[in-house]
Amino acid sequence: MTFQVYDTTLRDGAQREGVSYSVVDKLAVARLLDEFGVGFIEGGWPGAVPKDTEFFRRARTDLDLNHAVLVAFGATRRAGLGVDNDPQVHSLLAAETPVVTLVAKADLRHVQRALRTTADENLAMIHDTVTYLVAEGRRVFVDGEHFFDGYRDDPTYTSSVVEAALAAGAERFVLCDTNGGMLPSQVTAVIADLTARLGVAPEQLGIHGQDDTACAVANTIAAVEAGVRHVQGTANGYGERPGNADLFAVVANLQLKLGLPVLPAGCLERMVRVSRGIADIANIAPDDHQAYVGAAAFAHKAGLHASAIKVDPLFYNHVDPQAVGNHMRILVTEMAGRASIELKSRELGLALADHPEALNRVTKRVKDLEAAGWSFEAADASFELLVRSELPDGAPARPFTLESYRILVEHREDNAVVSEATVKIRIGGERMIATAEGNGPVNALDEALRVGLARHYPELGDFELADYKVRILEGSHGTGAVTRVLVETADGAGRDWTTVGVHPNVVEASWGALVDALTYGLDRART
After folding, report:
1. Lowest mean per-residue pLDDT among 46-55, 210-219, 418-427, 463-472
2. Stated pTM of the model
3. Alpha carbon 389 to chain centroid, angstroms
4. Measured in Å, how far apart are the chain's first and last C-alpha atoms?
5. Where are the beta strands (DSSP E) in 154-291?
6. Residue 101 and residue 141 in contact, taking contact as beta carbons nearer than 8 Å
7. Contact predicate 487/514, CB 8 Å
8. For 255, which DSSP code?
9. From CA 243, how far away is CA 274, in angstroms rounded?
10. β-strand pairing of 299-300 with 329-330
């Protein structure tokens, strides 16, 4: 049987706290998922959720999918109601998707106490609805809700649910760990027992894992190793409570670790871009430490690691980062040795290895600065300026010389708080004085500096202060603590860079980071 990768980001993933997709958002996510190469995109529950009904209506004209087919999700017919008369079932047909997924109770306790019907009626509901949809030309998957809990409590009845769905014509019966409480060994044991009990092939089964034990990905892989050939998950593991199985980790493990070509050729390399695109649409900051796709997934900090990576990057990377569209990063910290500095410089396009004395000086300076509270781990631009200052060509000259700066904070009668900064600088032989207001001291200082530099450096008009972070350094206390400031700057070309400043005075720390940011940005704009 063909391996099936089934995404439920737009339905199950949308149950994550804080996520609310518009119809336009859902269409955009579907395009990204199709680009990633999944086989099935579960678009939502038509008839039950108006937004989902509208999504399927618009999808007929607005979506041009190359790899995936759309799936409408819904329930079996209601207890005591004929399938011909169930409006929810008719809504599934009205969605006009080639595939329908039905959720069915697989735990007798839920059947009797939550659904409030009999064991036999539940089986009839499954049989009637599957048979009806298949007769209407739909491919049907059945999600067995609370399957694993039900199997543990009453394996005979839960097995009969599987049997009823497959006998009625369901293409796959999906084993759902709805409460997310299973462990991999338990998943494997249940699949083995179920297939032996019913005489069904594991390829007729699917797996849907929740992550309440942090085992959703592992449980999914265990199911595949037990013979299952249909996996469900969500982008970035989005979902209710701790979330669902992260489809990106699942797919990467299947393809790179088990050698199963579950995606079309060339699609796996799009994983990082698709992951971050969906995070942007969901308005969720990407998880830097997410497996495979996180910014830190292939980041190395220890000097020992860097020494080995110089010999072979795979010594400390479990796969080639480019296989999933990611890249290796070397972090420059107090743990860095010569190898880390050299590799990081190479990453930035600087041939520090050709200048061993400069390499020694940079290594010593980094260690000394890190000991004083600096951190270049997230400030590549400041690190590059430091390295270039030790190379024969030298760092780019500062665009100005500071004479002084001054900042006033005014609390006005109407409770407005306004900061005003004045900077006195020299550009060549010209003395400039510039004043500007801002919503805080650093913003005012940044604005005043730009006013003073604007005539000589028009490129600054494209620069934007994108982010600003302040941290009290470990081991310092109170209002006199040493602070570290990170400034992220972006330009009109979509590029961004981060600089760092450290000082007991937060404004001076900010000033250092701002000057680095402007120096680096202007140099790059003119090269």
Report:
1. 463-472
2. 0.72
3. 36
4. 55
5. 172-177, 205-209, 230-233
6. yes
7. yes
8. I
9. 18
10. parallel
Locate tokens 């497959």: which residue?
166
Query: Does residue 336 have a pLDDT over 80?
Result: no
Spatial CB neighbours of 64, under 8 Å, sequence gap ≥ 6: none
**What is the three-class DSSP state of 102?**
strand
Residue 313 — pLDDT band, cuts 50, 70, 90?
low
Q: Which residues contact 449 (CB under 8 A, 6 or more apart)?
A: 423, 425, 434, 514, 518
SS3 327: coil
Measured from the Cβ of residue 9, the count of other Cβ atoms closer than 10 Å reads 31
Instruction: Starting at the earlier edge strand, list the strands of the sheet with 464-472.
Output: 464-472, 483-490, 496-503
Return the HEC string of 351-371.
CHHHCHHHHHHHHHHHHHHHH
Burial track 362-401 (b if 16+ CB lie within 10 A, e otherwise): bbebbbebbeebbbbbbbbbbbbbbbbebbeeebbeebbe
- Please say whether the beta carbons of 217 and 246 come within 8 A: yes
Backbone phi, psi, residue 21, to 5°? -85, 135
Mapped onto helix, strand or coil, the DSSP state of residue 216 is: helix
CA 13 to chain CA mean position, Å? 13
**Which residues are CB-neighbours of 178 under 8 A, at least 6 positions away?**
145, 146, 147, 148, 149, 210
496-503 vs 483-490, strand pairing mode: antiparallel
